[in-house]
Amino acid sequence: MLTCLEKAFTSTKLHLVREYASLHRMTADAPLIACHECDLLQREAPLPQGGIARCGRCGAELYRSHPDSFERMLALTLGAGVLFAIANAFPIIGLKLEGQVIETTLFNTVRALYNEDMTPVAALVFVTTMLMPALQLFAMAYLLLPLKLGRAPRHFALVFRMLQAVRPWGMVEVLMLGVLVSLVKLAHLATVVPGIALWSFGALMLLFAAIAAVFDPRELWARVSAIR
Amino acid sequence: MTHAPTTAASRGLLVCHACGLLSRAGPHAHAASCPRCGARLHWRKPDSISRTWALLIAAMIFYIPANVLPMMHTSSLFGSQSDTIMSGVAYFWNSGAWYLALIIFFASILVPMLKMIALVLLLVTAQLHSRWQQQQRARLYRLVEIVGRWSMLDVYVVAVIVALVQLQALATIRAGPGAIAFGAVVVLTMFAAMSYDPRLIWDPPGEEHGRDSAKTRAT
Asked: Does A189 touch chain B (CB under 8 A)?
C-alpha cells in the first residue's frame, strides 16, 4: 500500500533554468515558475497523473497533477459542508450521572468559556474551530459552484485571497484530538457518552485533510481565465 | 553548481504569494500588486526578520506563564486543586494512560519549545547569510509550519472539560489564566512562522531585496 502510494507520488524534479534550457529545446518554451519558498526560477514540466513537481533546490512542492482535481474539490467541499452543519448542531459528548445526561455542543463550550470571563480563550476556540472552517467551506463553494456551471464568480480574486488567508487557521483535526483526550480525562468522573457531533467531527477531519490534498489553485485560475 | 542559481528576484520578477503568478516588476515596485489576484507584491516579506523576532520574543515571554500558571481549577467536595500543563501530564502518566501523557507532553511542552528554538536558528542563520545546511533548514521551516497548530490541543481539552463539568454540582472546573497565555503562545508562534520568509535561507549576502529594511534604514 505504502510503496504503491510512494510510486504514485514520485516527485519530478524540475530543471534548473540555466543548466537545462539550452540542452532541452523542448522545455525552453515551457512557462516559467518561481519557487514560493526559495525564489528559484525554473521551467514547468509536464507531470504524470498524481505526480508532484518539487523545487529542484529546496524541495518545496510547486504544483501537482491530480486527476479530476476540480470535481474532487467540489465534492469534498459539499460533503464537508453537510458534516460541518451536523457537527455544530448536535452535542459532541455528554456525561451520564445518576440517570441524568448532560451534553454540550461545540458552541456551548465557547459560551461556557465566555461566561467565565475567559473571553480570549473563547474567541480562540470559536475562531479556529467554527469561524475559519466555515469561511473556508463557504469560500470554496462560492468559487467552485459557479465555475462548475461555466460562470466566473464575482470578486473571484478577493475571495480566493481570503481563502488562502483563512486556510492555516482551521484546526478541526486538533479539536478532534482534544475532545478525545478530554473524553479520557472525564471518564473517571462519570460515564461519557459520545455524541453524534463527535463522529461528524471525525469524518470532517478526514474530509478537510482530503481537501488540503486535492486543493489546486492553478486549476482554479486556469478555469477562471478560460471563461473570461 | 559553479554559478549562482537564477532566482525570480534576480531577473526582476515578482512572485505573488497568494496565487503564484510571476509578474515583471514595474518602476514602482514598492506599491505593486498582482495583476491576476490583486494581492500586494513584495520582493521578500516586508521586514521579515524584525517582525519574526518581535513575535517570537513575545511568544517566549508568554511561554513562561503558560507553563507556570494553572490551566484549570478544580473544586469539589474533596477540596480544590490547580492543574498546570505539566501536572496534567503527570496525572495521566501516574494513572496509567502513558500514551495520553506522551501526546500532551509532545503537543503542549515539546512542540512549542522546539518550534521557538527552530525559529531562532532560522532567524540567526538567515541574518548571518549562512550557507550551512540550506536544504535541511528549508525542510525545518516546512516542519515548523505544519506542526505548530497541534499545540492548540490543551486549549481544546480545557474548553470541553470546563463546558461539561460546569453544568453539574459534582465539581466545578474553571479555566485558569494559563490557558490564555498558552493560546497566546500558539497564535504568536504561528504568526512568527508566517512572517518568516524562507527565501532568506537561500539569498546570497549581496542581494538585499527589501531584506530587513529596518536595518538599512537605521544606517
From this structure: yes
